[in-house]
């Protein structure tokens, strides 16, 4: 597993474009036949992608975690971002994941296998894992079952539908919060005006974007921002001190995931647009 260390915002000021991309962009998550994962030292969040073909892929990395099994001291959220069905087996119990379904698996489950139902049309499973202190029940939720919030409007080009899956009023977890946000057609901006939450880090996976379309993701302290150009199915790590907002060349979808100090989705320090630099 690739390790990414945390950055002091004072040092971040000196980062050039290449260094920003190296430290915060994850561009190799979905590779046929593999599970690829990145271990971030921001709240020890692991971000991964699995594309099983003919044989199941096991969620494991003893080498990095130095535990007997992956979820010995962790919890994990899975999302199927492909149109093709996937299957996750949790200690013998099988869960089928349709397009946009989410599965949460808590601490203590030992054998986690990720499979595609049809190897010619493989599933793409996005994986986010955080450290955990107790077991919460394994739970699956579809988009229709998630908590729906309407945000933004046409005048601000930021009309979007936010769905909360793993959160205080949904699937229970120790610290992991996850959901999906859809930008409406002709709307390009997410999370503008932006916010920070020094209590929690966040990761964004951008997808549902054609090959030539791009997202300009903004990060950094509100008064000292940088942008990362992001392509389809790439993720960005957002430090707790950083804004996380983006604009697309076309509308898009993203999965947000957070871990850290509190479990309060609405704990955000909003930033006035006049403060942005
Ligand atoms: O569209 C949005 O706004 C979001 O999806 C915001 C994220 O959920 C977020 O940043 C939560 O802190
Ligand atoms: Zn946020």
TrEMBL record:
NCBIfam families: PRK00924.1. It is an enzyme of class 5 (isomerase). Transmembrane segments: none annotated. Its cofactor is Zn(2+). Catalyzes the isomerization of 5-dehydro-4-deoxy-D-glucuronate to 3-deoxy-D-glycero-2,5-hexodiulosonate. It comes from the Bacteria. Coiled coil: none annotated. Its EC number is 5.3.1.17. Binds 1 zinc ion per subunit. This is 4-deoxy-L-threo-5-hexosulose-uronate ketol-isomerase.
